[in-house]
Amino acid sequence: MDQRQRLLLIVALSFGFMMLLQLIFGKEPEAVSSLTGADVAASTDYTGSALLGGKEDGSFAWIIYGGTRSIWHKEKFAKTFPGEKEYRHSLAEEADALRSVITLATSDKKTKKLSPSLKQLQQLDNEGLLEAYILLARPDDGIALDYPSYLKANREKLHRYVALHVIGQSAKP
Q1: Distance separating alpha carbons of residues 57 and 116, to the nearest angstrom
Q2: To pair with 38 at 20 to 30 A between CA atoms, which of 44, 67, 121, 137?
Q3: What is the DSSP letter of 96?
Q4: Rounded CA gap, 156 and 125, in Å?
């Protein structure tokens, strides 16, 4: 088992243990894991009507997500990671794409109130925890490669994300 596989196993076991504790002590898992990638995606309306302005909750802004990722795939990845020979989905790319959505949604004057998923993403970004959320709730194989360097530089943010948004307790230094 290589280091990446061990890391993913540790993360999976940690979340499984937290879910078990929540069940034992009576806290519903849904209330604790309200910021998982599946929940954000499930609570966002991806229909053409929403994307093209049928709603006034900022959902239309998701249309920029794919465009931002496409720019990363075509040119930005090579500039940001000159040492890597092949493109991969990176933490920097995902954070940039999600921030593009948040920026577009909040800058449009027609947006009256953000959808729950956009509001959650905006909150995470304002707290400085968007990257931690991506690494712990929405990783793929490419993003997972950024975990060791992020952990080394941002251990406190990962701890704060887990404490505030996974366990649901106030973060203690």
Answers
A1: 9
A2: 67
A3: H
A4: 15
What are 19-39's pLDDT values in tens digits? 544 555 554 434 333 444 444
End-to-end CA distance of the chain: 33
Strand stretches in 22-168, DSSP E: none
The Cα 127–Cα 116 span in angstroms is 16
pTM of the model: 0.68
User: Which tokens hold the place of 30?
Assistant: 């849904």
Exposed/middle/buried for residue 141 (C-beta within 10 Å: 0-12, 13-18, 19+): exposed
Domain boundaries, the chain: 29-167
CA contacts within 13 A on the Cβ side of 168: 13
CA-to-CA distance for 143 and 130, rounded, in angstroms? 13
Q: How many residues in total does the chain contain? A: 173
